[in-house]
UniProtKB/TrEMBL annotation:
Pfam families: CHAD (PF05235), CYTH (PF01928). Residues 1-207 form the CYTH domain. Residues 223-504 form the CHAD domain. InterPro entries: CHAD_dom, CHAD_dom_sf, CYTH-like_dom_sf, CYTH_domain. This is Inorganic triphosphatase YgiF, contains CYTH and CHAD domains. SUPFAM superfamilies: CYTH-like phosphatases. It comes from Cryptosporangium aurantiacum.
Length: 513
């Protein structure tokens, strides 16, 4: 559930103003009474969740499931904090696996413990338009007590504070106006807006606002060292991988694909910057990323094939394929996808996976680089990309229409690596690297279509052979194969002009200074 709210800090004697006048005709404020809420918050000993703005709690005193996980989702243009709240049932003494699984990427191998207990005396007011709720105003007086075990040494904070929250309860312009009007009245009365700090972070103090485990690298400039650029690139991809973990677990669209891309990009960057980094330092991470990419690859490959099946079947509306047979083939692929997802789930819930993430963070936090990496990135990195580009140019320029599919696929892999390498150095090289990356992406797109068609043709052949007694299916697979091989030929015909636009000194001159 999406949560959008404005927070305001107020002193203990703040008098809540009358909002009615500012809300406009037909809108009113209805008192909803008082709640006494008791929330126990869970985190790691070093507050890995709090430092990312994530909260996991068990709260009583209100209707609905008691366990809540809140994930930050940025802010609106009006300054409202946006979070996603996931609520589930479960016993009070142990965080439920439905939520702990979702924070695996952030807590990794560290155990979750109770870190603080907050008692909130809450007065609730509903801003309504007729019978439609627009927003809810809550006036919270919060008392903080220490968590069990973690803060028993006195490192926690025992205090109380008061804050106001105005939370959106419906969409549309009327709700926008209600939030804006409430914010204006509260600010005029002395409330301090712009607060975004969760209650738990206020309760735990400075340790909860320390930098996250994966520190953000500052902006790169033309004076940045190659080591700084390498750290920037690796941390950026690592952070994306951590962020996609929860999306994969929640089966969000394209999440598996993007997580796999993160693994591949990290491995490609380690390879590109190989001359500048310690091989023994990089090898363990590369091996583990290969394992994770393989686990992500099964579901993704099945997903691509199912989409390919539908698109290929619909290629020629004047020669439709048997819908029932297409459905049977899709069912075969669906079973394959479900098995692959089961294998992926086993990987993500294994002990190996959080250990991999610990290794990832420890590795990219302080990359071990060679002496040469201390020099400016603009002097050193173009040569790294040139090596990758030359491997592509040497082979892609010699492709012929009669080459085997695998030869074309090898050039696709090289194009992808050249694109990743160019994108990796773009923050310091600038527009020249960006232009080459875009050109390589176009090459990759054409060769990717070629590979998808070639792989699909092989799959339809394998399915036909495995179901040789199903005449209708065999015939349909044959027609699918014809269409896929036509797509292969079309991709090969498209390639030459795309490559000519890419392999030009205008795009590659910066590689050689």
């Amino acid at each position: 559930m999406r949560e959008e709210e404005l927070k305001f800090g107020v002193h203990g004697r703040f008098a809540l103003p009358d909002l009615t006048v500012a809300l406009g005709d037909g809108r009113r404020v209805e008192a909803q009474g008082r709640q006494v809420l008791t929330a126990v918050y869970y985190d790691t000993a070093d507050l890995r969740l709090a430092r990312l703005g994530i909260t996991l709690r068990h709260r009583t005193g209100e209707d609905g499931p008691p366990w809540h996980l809140k994930l930050p989702k940025g802010a609106t243009a009006a300054g409202a904090t946006v979070r996603e709240e996931i609520a589930v049932d479960g016993p009070a003494d142990t965080p439920p696996s439905e939520l702990t699984d979702l924070v695996t990427a952030w807590v990794r191998t560290a155990p979750l413990v109770a870190v603080a207990t907050l008692r909130t005396d809450r007065d609730r007011y509903l801003i309504v338009d007729g019978k439609r709720p627009l927003a809810e105003l809550v006036d919270d007086t919060v008392e903080v007590s220490e968590g069990r075990g973690l803060l028993a040494d006195g490192s926690g904070v025992r205090t109380s504070f008061r804050e106001l929250e105005v939370e959106r309860k419906s969409d549309g312009k009327k709700a926008d106006a209600a939030l804006a009007a409430a914010a204006a009245v509260l600010t005029q009365a002395g409330a301090v807006g712009g607060a975004t700090t969760p209650k738990l972070v206020r309760a735990l103090g400075p340790r909860a606002t320390a930098p996250p485990d994966l520190p953000v690298v500052g902006e790169l400039t033309d004076r940045s060292s190659a080591a700084d650029a390498i750290a920037f690139v690796l941390r950026r991809s690592a952070r994306r991988l951590l962020d996609y973990d929860v999306r994969v677990r929640r089966d969000e669209k394209d999440a598996v694909h993007q997580a796999r891309v993160c693994c591949r990009r990290l491995r490609s960057d380690l390879r590109t910057f190989g001359p500048l980094i310690d091989a023994e330092w990089a090898a363990p991470l590369d091996a583990e990323l290969r394992w994770l990419a393989a686990a992500l690859g099964g579901p993704r490959d099945a997903e691509v094939l199912r989409a390919r099946l539908r698109s290929t079947a619909e290629t020629d509306p004047l020669a439709p394929l048997d819908a029932a047979v297409i459905g049977r083939i899709d069912a075969i692929l669906g079973d394959r996808q479900r098995r692959a997802l089961t294998n992926l789930d086993a990987a993500l819930t294994s002990d190996r996976y959080p250990a991999l993430l610990d290794l990832l963070i420890e590795t990219v936090r302080t990359p071990e680089t060679a002496e040469l990496a201390r020099q400016r990135a603009v002097w050193v990195l173009p040569a790294m990309v040139e090596v990758v580009w030359d491997k592509l140019a040497t082979k892609a320029g010699k492709l012929t229409l009669d080459d085997p599919d695998d030869t074309w696929h090898a050039s696709r892999i090289r194009a992808k690596r050249a694109r990743y390498a160019s994108e990796a150095v773009a923050p310091v090289i600038g527009a020249s690297a960006t232009r080459l990356a875009k050109a390589c992406a176009e090459v990759q797109e054409v060769l990717g279509e070629h590979q998808d068609a070639a792989i699909a043709a092989d799959e339809w052949r394998d399915i036909a052979l495995a179901h040789a007694d199903d005449t209708e299916l065999v015939i349909t697979c044959g027609r699918l194969i014809e269409r896929e091989r036509a797509a292969v030929r079309e991709s090969r015909a498209r390639f030459a002009p795309v490559w000519e636009r890419t392999d030009r000194p205008k795009l590659t001159g910066w590689l050689r200074g």
